Amino acid sequence: MDAGSNNFANGDYQYIPSTQYGPSDYDTTHAFKLYAVYSPTIFRGNKGWVEKIAGGWTVSGILNAHSGFPWTPLTNNACDAVYQGSCGGGGNGSLRPVAYLGGAGTSSSTDTFKQPNGNFPNGGLAYFVPATVTVGPSFEDIVAGVASPGPIPPPPGIGRNSFRGPRYFGVDATLSKSFGFPEMRVLGAGAKLEIRANFFNVFNKLNLSNPQVDINNPNFGTAQDALGGRTIEMQARFSF
Fold it and tell me: Which of 13, 17, 99, 104 would bridge 129 by S-S if both were Cys, CB 3.0 to 4.6 A apart?
């Protein structure tokens, strides 16, 4: 839990700082990791050149699965009502809805976030009451004393990071083979050449991210991005 998950976090409702406290941007309700390393000795009892050439294999892998990261529905393009035009910087570029009407789904599956509106099949405005603002006078008029600041926006009716995005599942693996060299005067007894293949997302699993958060957007609730597909990286390393 925190009030901002990075050093430059700018709250969406600065008038009541306590409304920012909620699940961290990196919080996961459930997380599972499994690691494994297998380095067989092919010719047991043989420490000579046969094992150095035929042996030296290592297979390792990491399975990583977790539930979705939290996210916050917003009413975008709602300029700060106190100072006209202060949508960036210290002003409010976005506001949280003033109420959640209920009825949304809770699935974190990839198929859900691929379909239009995800867990909100009727569109964002069917589930939330947007924040409405009255744009006040310009900053220049307020400084000049010819106008007073306008009313502040209404407080949010939902908590920060109160909904969950798509879950993640991935397996990374490494296959390596070491070739030992005979003992030499310059290289010593432990010289070897290692050939390695690193497999990221070895099963090419589709993992989605970044749901559309604007309740006015027709794609609200649909994932906008996907993480990387299968990637293979080759390496060679000589050590002595």
Answer: 99
Tens digits of residue pLDDT in 159-217 = 999 999 999 999 999 999 988 777 777 777 778 888 999 999 999 999 999 999 999 99
Task: Specify the pairing of strand 70-71 against strand 163-164.
Answer: antiparallel
The SS3 call for residue 126 is helix
- CA 218 to CA 3: how far, in whole Å? 29
Judged on CB neighbours under 10 Å (0-12, 13-18, 19+), 12 is buried
Q: What is the radius of gyration, based on Cα positions, of the chain? A: 27
Cα gap 74→122, rounded to integer Å: 17
The one-letter amino acid code at 141 reads D
Measuring CA to CA, which residue among 71, 87, 92 is closest to residue 22? 71
Considering the entire predicted model, what is its pTM? 0.79
Q: How far apart are CA 71 and CA 164, in angstroms?
A: 6
Provide the CA 15 distance to its chain's centre, in angstroms.
Answer: 28
Sign of CA dihedral 159, 161, 166, 167: negative
Question: Distances in Å between the alpha carbon of 72 and those of 132, 212, 220?
Answer: 17, 10, 11
Query: Using an 8 Å Cβ cutoff, are 57 and 192 in contact?
Result: no
User: Looking up tokens 């990261």, which residue turns up?
Assistant: 69
Q: Which helix (H) or strand (E) holds 31?
A: strand 31-38
| Vertex 104: Cα angle to 98 and 109 (nearest 5) | 130
Which helix (H) or strand (E) element contains residue 210?
strand 208-211
